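Chain A, query sequence.
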Amino acid sequence: MEKIVSLSPLPVELLRELFKMHGVEDIKVVDASNFEIGQIVEAVKDAGYIIGDYRFQQRITRDVAQAAKQVKLIQQPSVGYQHIDISACRDVGIKVANTAGANTIAVAEHTIMAALCLLKNIFFAVRTTAAGEWRQMEVRPVELFNKTWGFIGFGRIGRAVAERLTTFGMHMLYYDISRITAEEEQRFQITFTELNDVVKSADILSLHCPLTEDTVGLLSRDKIALMKPSAVVINVARGEVVDEQALSEALRDGKLGGAALDVFTVEPIDSANPLLAMASDKVIFSPHVAGVSIEAQGRIITTTITNIIKVMKGQIPESLVN
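Chain A, predicted structure.
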């Protein structure tokens, strides 16, 4: 019997049924989503597989990795895996996989939706009209056409956004540590340039980079100061990539046109977060939900189950990160 320890708050019976649908029944599933770290260490000692925590709250530390001597795969049911000590897992020979690509469409659609809501001033229009006011000439929506969209990070999600934006007649710029080929740039109708140039030129700036030591605070106070006062920021990457204090001050002082933030440095969002004081028609908050469409959830859980089964069968799982 294979033991699977789940650090995500997924119903045990649901997991058992999902494995059963794929012909796997001889398993023991342990819900460790609310365990203390010491309990997790004990739980993984005789486990064959670990399902990581999509909330990023239950960390897989070096102690956990060293205790998981029989674990063949840590399957993270999300794209992000910053709560897993990848180096420790590599040292003890544990494979780690995520669900790369499962939420690409959802995040791409959310990004464009957020930009349209901000540019069209839709929340002002809804709020005032619902109050019985007719402030037609105060909405002042603007078009995406002929605007400049800047990307920080141009991986799967950035490319999915760009692919969808080609129909809007926009200028697109991107910065990424890995430049795509000239043929790909032509296909996406996008131009590579340095980070400062992207920030200075963008009417809409969207962030799609991973969280690494190099990207913490990447959109810094100095970078924000370079932006157009009418520009909007959309962060669907990680909260730590943006200097939240500097962003809140720029919004407060009218040095930016707006922001749509799906991620925050502390999640769930801390009541002391300075951005909360900036809530308005031009500042959109959402609870890290861009990638959590109903369809994306289905793809994530399917990949999680099938990857574990692949390893059970001696096959190589998809989306290994180490």
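DSSP finds 13 helices and twelve strands in the chain. The longest helix spans residues 294-312.
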